[in-house]
Structures are given as structure tokens and as C-alpha cells.
Design a protein that fits this description.
- The complex is a heterodimer of chains A (381) and B (109).
- With 381 residues, chain A is an all-alpha fold.
- Chain A is built from 15 helices and no strands.
- Chain A has one domain.
- Chain A starts with a helix and ends with a helix.
- With 109 residues, chain B is of the alpha+beta class.
- Helix content of chain B is 25%, strand content 46%.
- Chain B has 2 helices and 5 strands; from the N terminus they run H-H-E-E-E-E-E.
- In chain B, strands 1-2-3-5-4 form a 5-stranded mixed beta barrel.
- Chain B starts with a helix and ends with a strand.
- The chains are: A mainly alpha (381), B alpha+beta (109).
- Chains A and B meet through helix 7 and helix 14 of A and helix 1 of B.
């Protein structure tokens, strides 16, 4: 019973941390290592917190355009839907796809148990060639001038590969540049529709969620392949509108977090900050015990976020968009300075100018992801 | 291409140059054998190839050398061989005109 209380505490903490723009639970993990808890208590606390965090962190990325390391790609479709007055639907789609992914996770787990140890080495070998193909496809499917963005982003990625600077990189490419562009164009935000009115059927969203679950099951266990890269791969497999792309990125984040715990238990690899913490106390816990905590905490976090969504969007729609943009920009600069210092600010400024460049050239902003893809290829080859 | 686009390209490229110039040394960088030998005190984190190996009653003594700099690493509870490429964390101390590293953690690279 006391373990369930730890789960609840973790869920509450994850929800709060996710709602604060720019924060990531990884920044707080070292503090949890200092607590003297039993193994099941730590598992309940950490998994509860991680799962609720991935659900609630979609709010600031969609509404304010302030991402953390995982939610950067949510900004592009999220912001587009906010400008169409569909912020509420965007958040519900994001939450729903995350929850569908958790449901699909259970059958996928049975596949992992049987095949992951067999296929893991082969998949690992193939990944760099697949990424080269992805990079090539990114180029040929976009305007020719996208090559400028791809080259500069790749150079930035290679220069910063040795440092943990995902936050300033992704904030610059997708967050800051979007808000600066909106400010300079004097974008007006229409009144938000407070009804869930999805453009796609539930079947279509389920299909996208299944795809994110499937792709994450292939790449989620490979080192250096982030959830953003998997979302980009997905967006090239099937033509997606803003809503579906949002469902794909949100679903992939949830799948990545869940699979990071399975990877720890099945192949003893750590793929998230939460898994790193659990790896220090891990003593052959049952995978079904972990699956149980994931299902429980995701269900509670999903319901809590669904309940919060309306009031948060209502509050958001009362605020002045221009002031909100300025607040978000200042907040992003501050958060990046706190976590990455002056060097991080330099990377943030460079990444922002590349994001703006992609906008001005009229190319897809996802070309900026070359900054992760090219260094990943360099590491894996 | 308009002036704003060109300005953005120049800004991005200037940023790349500044990042290249001001990149700090990576936090996980290992010290070179020459650096460890020079200071030879306190906690050290280094990597190298074992050029000579001998055993004592309490453990193994591995010699790591690089460009005429040589240090001796005292290793307990870990089996290594000559030619192994290892990374070592431990404490360095000068003893009998030699730089000794008493390894707390040894890993193969």
C-alpha cells in the first residue's frame, strides 16, 4: 500500500515538473538517488514520475512553444494548431496518442521478450545505413535549398556532439525560432475552441500511435537514436497532417520512456535518465511488475492531464499572445543559461538562427534534425 | 535570397566559428599520461595501453607509457594483460621517483 503512495507522489511530481516550461526530470534525478528507499518504492516513484512527466510536458511545448529535450518536435504541429484555435484538441490528441501507445506497449512487450535479445545486434548494425538513407530522403523530398540548412545543422551537431547540449539545440531550432517568427509577423491567436474536435478519426490516430510504438520498438533500444529521430523517420513513412504528426511525436516520447525501462530489464542498457537511476538499484525485478507500474501511472497521469487540459487552455487563451511570446523567449534564455551556461547560450543563438533560416528559405524545419542525425551516423559507423 | 536570409546564414556561420573557438574541453576527457606524471597528485582519470605488466603479492603493476612519459598503475581485483587498452580512475602519488596511480576503478576501452 505504501508503495502505491510512492507511485502517487511520483505521478504528482512528474505532472508538476512537466508543466514547468523547459524543465526535464533528468535534471532532478541525482536528487532522488540520495533518498533511502526500498527497491519497489524507488521503482514506483521513478516510473510514476517519468510516465506522468511525458504526458504533462506536452502542455508547455504546445501552448508556449517552450520544449524540453524530448518535446521539441511537438512545437511545430502544436503551434500550427494553436494558431488555428485548436489548442485544446491538440493537447487531447497528444495525450490520447500517448495513452494508446501505453496500451499497445503490452503486446509489444511479449515480442521483446522473445525477439529482442536475438535481433538487437543485427538492428544495431543496420541503423547507421538507415540514417544515411533518411538524410538523403530528407534532402530529396524538400526544396533544393534545404541543403544549406542540413549542412549548417550538421556542422553544429558535430561541433557540440561531445557536450550534452540537446536543450539549447532543440530549443533554438524549434522553440525560439518559431516564437521570433510569430512575433515578427505579428501573428494573432484566434479564440480557442474548447471542444475536442479532431480532424482525424480515432482509427487514424490509433494507427499513428501504433506506428510510433512499432518504430520505437525497433529504434528505442539503439544508443544515440533519439525519439525525435524516430518521429522524423515516421513522418517519411506515411504522409501526416499536423494533428497526426503531433500524435506521432507524443506517442514516440511515451513509447521511448516505457521502452527505456524494458531495455534496462531485458538487455541491461540505460536509455533515459530515469533508467540510469534505476540501473543503480536494479536486482532482477520482474518485467511485468514494471509494466504494471507503467500502466497504472500512465492511466492516472492521462486522466489528470485530461482534467487539467480545459482549465489550462482557458487560462492560456486569456493571456496576451505577444506578451506570452516574450515571456517564453525570456524563459527559454534563462533555462538554457541555468543548465548550459554561456556556451549553451551561444549554441542557442546559433540554433535559433538556423531555425529562422529554414523558415526564411521555406524549407521544412525538420531538416535541422541533421544536427542529431549526422553526429549519430559518425558515432555508429 | 533576400538580405534577411543572407544575414541569417552569416549569423549561423559566425555562431559555428565562435562555438569552434570557445568549445570547452569535454567534461569526461581523460588526462594524458604526461599530464598525470607532471602533477602526480590527487584524483586522476586517464586512459592508455599497458606496455609492461608485473605482479606483486597484493595485485598487478601495469606500466602505461606515452611519448617517453611513464606511470605505474597498481591494480587490485582486476585481471589485465600487456597490450590491453584500459581507462583508470584512482589516486596518484609520487613514490621512489616514480608516479604511481592506485586504481579505484579499471575498465577496458
Amino acid at each position: 500500500m505504501i508503495d502505491i503512495l510512492f507511485c502517487m507522489a511520483g505521478i504528482a511530481l512528474g505532472l508538476i515538473l512537466g508543466l514547468i516550461p523547459g524543465l526535464h526530470i533528468n535534471n532532478f534525478m541525482p536528487a532522488f538517488a540520495l533518498l533511502s528507499l526500498t527497491n519497489p518504492q524507488t521503482f514506483f516513484l521513478v516510473i510514476g514520475m517519468s510516465m506522468s512527466f511525458v504526458f504533462s510536458s506536452s502542455f508547455p511545448s504546445i501552448l508556449l512553444g517552450v520544449p524540453n529535450e524530448d518535446t521539441a518536435l511537438n512545437i511545430l504541429p502544436g503551434h500550427r494548431l494553436v494558431l488555428e484555435g485548436e489548442a485544446y484538441s491538440a493537447i487531447i490528441v497528444s495525450l490520447l496518442s500517448g495513452f494508446l501507445v501505453v496500451i499497445f506497449t503490452a503486446p509489444f512487450l511479449l515480442l521483446f521478450l522473445k525477439f529482442l535479445p536475438l535481433f538487437y545486434p543485427a538492428i544495431q548494425e543496420l541503423v547507421p545505413y538507415l540514417l544515411i538513407a533518411l538524410l538523403f530522403f530528407m534532402f530529396i523530398s524538400d526544396k533544393k535549398r534545404a541543403i544549406i540548412v542540413i549542412i549548417i545543422s550538421s556542422a553544429l551537431g558535430l561541433l557540440t556532439i561531445s557536450y550534452n547540449l540537446l536543450l539549447p539545440l532543440l530549443t533554438g531550432f524549434f522553440g525560439m525560432s518559431t516564437l521570433i517568427f510569430s512575433l515578427s509577423n505579428r501573428t494573432e491567436v484566434p479564440p480557442q475552441v474548447m471542444r475536442f474536435k479532431p480532424k482525424n478519426s480515432l482509427a487514424s490516430l490509433s494507427m499513428v500511435s501504433f506506428m510510433s510504438c512499432f518504430l520505437s520498438s525497433i529504434f528505442g533500444f539503439i544508443p544515440a537514436i533519439s525519439s525525435s529521430i524516430v518521429s522524423i523517420i515516421g513522418s517519411y513513412i506515411r504522409k501526416l497532417d499536423s494533428e497526426e504528426f503531433l500524435a506521432l511525436t507524443s506517442g514516440t516520447n511515451v513509447a521511448y520512456m516505457s521502452y527505456s525501462f524494458f531495455a534496462l530489464l531485458l538487455i541491461q542498457k540505460t536509455r533515459s535518465g530515469s533508467a540510469v537511476l534505476l540501473s543503480q538499484i536494479f536486482e532482477q525485478e520482474s518485467i511485468f511488475f514494471v509494466l504494471g507500474i507503467i500502466l497504472l501511472s500512465s492511466a492516472i497521469a492521462f486522466l489528470a492531464c485530461m482534467r487539467l487540459a480545459k482549465s489550462i487552455v482557458r487560462l492560456y487563451s486569456r493571456l496576451n499572445y505577444r506578451k506570452l511570446c516574450l515571456f517564453s523567449i525570456s524563459f527559454m534564455v534563462m533555462i538554457n543559461f541555468v543548465f548550459a551556461g554561456f556556451f549553451g547560450l551561444l549554441v542557442l543563438a546559433t540554433a535559433t538562427s538556423i531555425g529562422l533560416l529554414a523558415n526564411l528559405l521555406g524549407t521544412r524545419r525538420t531538416s535541422c534534425m541533421a544536427c542529431l542525425i549526422v553526429p549519430t551516423i559518425a558515432v555508429l559507423l | 535570397m533576400n538580405a534577411l536570409t543572407v544575414a541569417c546564414i552569416i549569423l549561423a556561420c559566425s555562431g559555428l566559428v565562435l562555438i569552434y573557438i570557445f568549445s570547452p574541453a569535454p567534461a569526461d576527457a581523460k588526462s594524458s599520461i604526461a599530464e598525470v606524471r607532471r602533477s602526480c597528485s590527487g584524483a586522476v582519470d586517464l586512459a592508455g595501453t599497458i606496455t609492461r605488466l608485473s605482479s606483486s603479492d597484493n595485485g598487478l603493476i601495469a606500466e602505461l607509457s606515452e611519448n617517453k612519459s611513464k606511470i605505474l598503475v597498481f591494480i587490485r581485483d582486476f585481471w589485465v594483460q600487456e597490450g590491453d587498452n584500459i581507462s583508470v580512475s584512482g589516486k596518484a602519488n609520487k613514490f621512489s621517483n616514480q608516479c604511481w596511480v592506485f586504481a579505484d576503478k579499471v575498465e577496458f576501452r
